[in-house]
Design a protein that fits this description.
about 90 residues, alpha+beta, three-stranded antiparallel sheet, 2 helices, about 25% strand
Length: about 90
């Protein structure tokens, strides 16, 4: 009986040792599966006259990195549908 218990424990430990490295590459949080196309949104923002160099999704907003006439860089928050500037 003790021999079977020891074999069962060794087997369980070996299986846990195999499963741990396989899980190491997975994230505990879901990655975004969004259809956000940064190049397309950047072109749309620039067509609106906003001098953006990059855009990204940020929560419920689109954030554009904008350079003003003096060369100062700022972040501008936009609505995702209309790309209107949001005053936070």
């Amino acid at each position: 009986m003790i021999k079977n218990s020891v074999i069962a424990l060794v087997t369980a430990a070996a299986l846990a040792g195999i499963a741990a490295p396989a899980m190491a590459g997975t994230s505990l949080t879901q990655t975004s599966d969004s259809d956000f196309d940064a190049a397309y949104v950047l072109a749309q923002v620039q067509d609106k006259g906003i001098n953006a160099s990059s855009v990204e999704e940020w929560g419920d907003y689109v954030v554009a990195s904008v350079t003003d006439a003096e060369g100062k860089q700022t972040l501008v928050y936009l609505t995702p549908v209309t790309l209107e500037v949001v005053n936070l």
